[in-house]
Specification:
Layout (H helix, E strand, L loop, with lengths): L15 E7 L7 E2 H6 L7 H9 L3 E3 L2 E2 L5 E2 L4 E6 L17 E4 L3 E6 L16 H8 L22 E7 L2 H12 L4 E9 L6 E5 L1 E4 L7 E4 L11 E9 L3 E8 L6 H8 L22 H13 L5 E9 L6 E5 L4 H16 L10
Parallel strand pairs: 9-16
Antiparallel strand pairs: 1-6, 2-5, 3-4, 3-6, 7-8, 8-9, 10-15, 10-16, 11-14, 12-13, 14-15, 16-17
Length: about 350
């Protein structure tokens, strides 16, 4: 028997895992489409080949063609752009930090750790579970997710607007598409950014080798991604890290995380993009311990959706909301302030 994990979901890349297999020892080389025919019920070889053409069959996290020859130890994942359990969502009585609410919209301050919509096999405890418990007949967005106009990553904290009516969904979605909404994030990034402010422009798409990441595509490869623009401004310099404000023109998946890494300033403790490693600083053991302590204080990527502004879909009034930077980020920044103030950045030491 093969290892089989049905119906899993890759939350942040918008692809949903329907099947996963690990090829056992003794398996002879065999085309992946023929191999999968042996383990997926109620399918045809043409459907499997179509999935491969759409980039939905991965071997060891790399998209493969249908003629790829499987070998022992290969991890195979079959993924599609639609969920498997979307009709099994149930409402749950989950407390929400409601910043604003009227008959048309709801603004929520999402804590870090809460999944916006079901993911990674967790079909409970999400924002959507809380919303469908709280409201009847929420409008679906273009991805059939009730109420959601936009989203933020699981481990990003901050503001989200929810549409309570079809009219509000249409109006708000148009504002996000036309770039008339206002979204500002606060982030802690590795390194001392030289400029006081700047703009990152670079098309964003899925990384060709690591499908759990996105990356920037430029020049002749630009058509592999979608246009993305991020404006950043330095708020505070803390030695080997910098606190920045990031304002979005577009809303691509992982946009700030990808753009800041692209310019050499990965988000602090962003495990998916390598920020959980010590990327700047000294080689001193004492410094390494200090950074590890910072990671313990802030056990997620240092990103918070601080400001959200939009035109009210009924009244036309422009509303702007702010959510204070959460305590874990505040505590981390304070540790860096103390370090920057009381520790000289050893000019004679080897830096990383």
């Amino acid at each position: 028997m093969q290892d089989y994990t049905p119906e899993n979901f890759d939350e942040e890349s918008e692809m949903y895992e329907h099947f996963a297999f690990t090829v056992k020892e003794g398996q002879k080389p065999l085309r992946v489409d023929k191999y999968l025919m042996n383990f997926i019920e109620n399918t045809t070889r043409n459907k499997i080949q179509d999935a491969a053409k759409d980039g939905g069959i991965f071997v060891n996290d790399i998209a493969v063609k249908s003629n790829y020859k499987v070998k022992p130890g290969d991890n195979i994942r079959v993924m599609f752009a639609h969920p498997t359990y979307e009709n099994l969502l149930v409402g749950e009585d989950i407390d929400l930090d409601v910043v604003y609410e009227d008959d048309d919209v709801l603004v929520v301050n999402k804590p870090a750790g809460m999944v916006v919509h079901p993911g990674h096999g967790n079909y409970s405890g999400t924002l959507i579970n809380a919303l469908i418990y709280r409201f009847d007949n929420l409008p679906n967005n273009s991805s059939d997710r009730p109420g959601l106009v936009h989203r933020i990553d699981k481990d990003t904290s901050g503001l989200l607007v929810v549409a309570k009516t079809e009219e509000a969904m249409t109006h708000l979605a148009a504002q996000f598409a036309e770039k008339t909404s206002e979204r500002e994030y606060v982030a802690i990034v590795w390194g001392n950014i030289e400029e006081e402010e700047g703009t990152v422009e670079g098309n964003i798409g899925r990384h060709p080798k690591n499908r759990l990441q996105n990356t920037v595509f430029l020049d002749e490869e630009a058509d592999k991604g979608k246009p993305a623009v991020t404006h950043y401004k330095v708020l505070e310099r803390l030695g080997y890290v910098t606190v920045v404000s990031c304002k979005l023109e577009t809303g691509r998946t992982h946009q700030i995380r990808v753009h800041m890494k692209h310019i050499g300033h990965t988000l602090f403790n962003d495990e998916r993009y390598g920020g959980e490693k010590i990327l700047k600083g000294t080689t001193f053991t004492k410094y390494k311990q200090f950074v590890e302590n910072c990671f313990k204080v802030l056990s997620r990527q240092a990103l918070h959706a601080k400001t959200l502004g939009f035109e009210h879909p009924r009244t036309g009034e422009f509303l702007r909301f702010e959510a204070p930077v959460p305590q874990d980020m505040v505590d981390c920044m304070e540790k860096w302030r103390v370090y920057a103030k009381h520790q000289s950045l050893e000019t004679g030491s080897e830096e990383v």
